Amino acid sequence: MKRFLEANGFTVKGEIRGADVVAMRDGEPPLLVIAELKLGLSFDLVLQAVDRMTVADEVWLAVPATKKGRDRDRRAHRLCRLLGIGLLAVTPRTGHVEVLAEPTPSAPRRNALARRLIVKEFTRRRGDPSTGGSTRTGIMTAYRQQALSIARALAPAPLRPRDLRPDHPDALSILSRNVYGWFERTARGVYGLTSAGHDALRAWTEHRAGDDNGIPRADG
Q: What is the DSSP string of 193-215?
């Protein structure tokens, strides 16, 4: 799915504010596409796509290709076209993507705030560290990326927020909020890692070993 969208000129990232796959193409405003990945075509999936239409310029549904399944039902294709939703059949073994229905222009009421939040998270997130459709592991949000980057900087020894600021402008805010419980004040104005912080840094590094895990390094 990612290769299909990238071949059409999009930058693609997984798991953005609940959407399985989000793709953006430069423009003013940028073209925003959302794709939902499921193991089969269902009414609930269609309803989910209808919700996504309030924030995206195009919405696609992607399901595994079958020979006689619901993805081959011409009535399902007609329904998607009537709603303005795109439908794709994906063959995981080969990576082939078949377009069963093209998304058509529609004019649902736009949720401007939800759209801005998706675009903001997409823009701030470094790389594409979260697999679309994955629910078994935590999602690498832009905030978590920053927190992990700070944790990596603190791993050797405690530091002051001003020491971190050149590479982490939001260091003081992230250390003070301590959303994940990874940081602790070791002295006045000095922060270090808790055992939970060391565990998280190790777990995310192991989990993303060999991939672009999206944890920014101080050296760029």
A: E-HHHHHHHHHHHHHTTTS----
Residues 89 and 170: their CA atoms lie apart, in Å, by 43
**Secondary structure letter of residue 104 according to DSSP:** -
* Structure confidence by residue, pLDDT tens digits, 44-62: 999 999 999 988 999 999 9
CATH tag for 2-124 (out of 3.40.50.1400, 3.40.50.10670, 1.10.10.10, 3.40.50.280): 3.40.50.10670
Answering whether pTM is above 0.70, one says: no
For the purposes of burial, counting CB atoms within 10 Å of the CB of 86, is it exposed (0-12), middle (13-18) or buried (19 or more)?
buried
Residue 173 CB coordination number (10 Å): 11
Q: Which residues pair with residue 185 across a beta bridge?
A: 191
pLDDT tens column, 175-200: 999 999 999 999 999 999 999 999 88
- Alpha-carbon separation of residue 74 from 60, 77, 81, 101, 189 (angstroms): 17, 5, 11, 10, 65
- What's the rounded Cα separation, in Å, for the pair 124 and 216? 12
In total, the chain counts a number of residues equal to 220
Contact 99, 90 (CB under 8 A): no
Amino acid at 193: L
Domain regions of the chain by residue span? 2-124, 142-207
